[in-house]
What we know:
Two copies of one chain form a homodimer. By secondary structure, chain A is mostly helical. Chain A has two domains: 52 residues, Arc Repressor Mutant, subunit A (Orthogonal Bundle), CATH 1.10.10.60; 150 residues, Tetracycline Repressor, domain 2. In chain A, α1 crosses α6, α5 packs antiparallel against α9 and α8 runs antiparallel to α9. Chains A and B meet through α7, α8 and α9 of A and α7, α8 and α9 of B. Chains A, B: It comes from Denitrobaculum tricleocarpae. Chains A, B: GO terms for molecular function: DNA-binding transcription factor activity; transcription cis-regulatory region binding. Chains A, B: InterPro entries: Homeodomain-like_sf, HTH-type_TetR-like_transc_reg, HTH_TetR, MT1864/Rv1816-like_C, Tet_transcr_reg_TetR-rel_C_sf. Chains A, B: This is TetR/AcrR family transcriptional regulator.
Amino acid sequence: MARRSDHTREEIKTMAVAAGRELIRDAGYAGFSARKVATAIGYTVGTLYNVFENHDDIILHINAVTLEDLLSVMESRFGVSGDASADLDDYEALRALAACYIDYARENYNCWSALFEHNLAPDMPLPDWYGEKIGALFTLIEARLKPVVGEDEAELRQTARVLWASIHGICALTLTNKLTLVGVETAESLTAALIENYIAGLKTRPARL
Amino acid sequence: MARRSDHTREEIKTMAVAAGRELIRDAGYAGFSARKVATAIGYTVGTLYNVFENHDDIILHINAVTLEDLLSVMESRFGVSGDASADLDDYEALRALAACYIDYARENYNCWSALFEHNLAPDMPLPDWYGEKIGALFTLIEARLKPVVGEDEAELRQTARVLWASIHGICALTLTNKLTLVGVETAESLTAALIENYIAGLKTRPARL
């Protein structure tokens, strides 16, 4: 390990995020602590709180890497504005996006789960830089919904969020084995039925002026 | 407290379930332990494991009371086969059912959450009596979907499960304040959009032979 004086603040930050992410990956969100991160990188907790604003700020930086990772997996499969999957129709493309989300969650369960297990302190607003990473993921879904929903920004926004929240529900229930309890074998049949009918329903709306 | 010899096995079971449910209600699923239940009812952990099969069996009995409670709230508002809400159209009735689920989860957060936090041991099958309680809840949703979906049992089953899993996702994300992070103000607008389009989509299917 390099001597302490060798690391800039930015380097310490990067090391802490990597160590924290590894902790969560191996032991889940419940296994995370600032103390463990400090030990892993050979610094004191005090140093950690010098380079991060607070405990939430450390987790947000770790979770941001997960959001970036998920975005890069999605973009590599669907292109920034969905063009890499231009050969798929709307319905197939949205199904593939949903499958990609569920696969990512399954393969990176602890890191994905930490996105939802972490709760910001009530008085702490979500930083803009973090909100932008969430926004980038929704932009990708919205690009795929535009041919169906049209250009109305508010409706596009809402449709993307309804679909995500619904698929997230199916995903979370699948990965915690709760769908087998209600007699469902795979998440795939549920997401297919959800997207197929939801899209068909959207197409029945009267044309907007 | 009555003397120990005053209680039958059934009485001990009932006392333990009530005490366990109170524990979960006050301290969440993480605050539950067989030891605390035993202490609360003045018996040893050994006695508890004499009247229950194992740790999972205790939790299942506690969670079953939550399922019964949720069913009785739903039935009191919608009737056993949906007839108490006969004045609502399909779309309104399903929206009201979703709102009822989300309200119940909000008002009984720790008990509702325990339904999903508990994981059965991998070698333990779900007991039939517990599966029937889950089934009764789905029967209520299916009754409301029948006018839209038709009599096909398999499709009715699947449609009910898709809707529940999706609404469950919106509900879980709302109650953990995750929807505000993606710029959504209320769960209501999402469930409305979900049900409206999903139902409209179902109605576009070709008639079955």
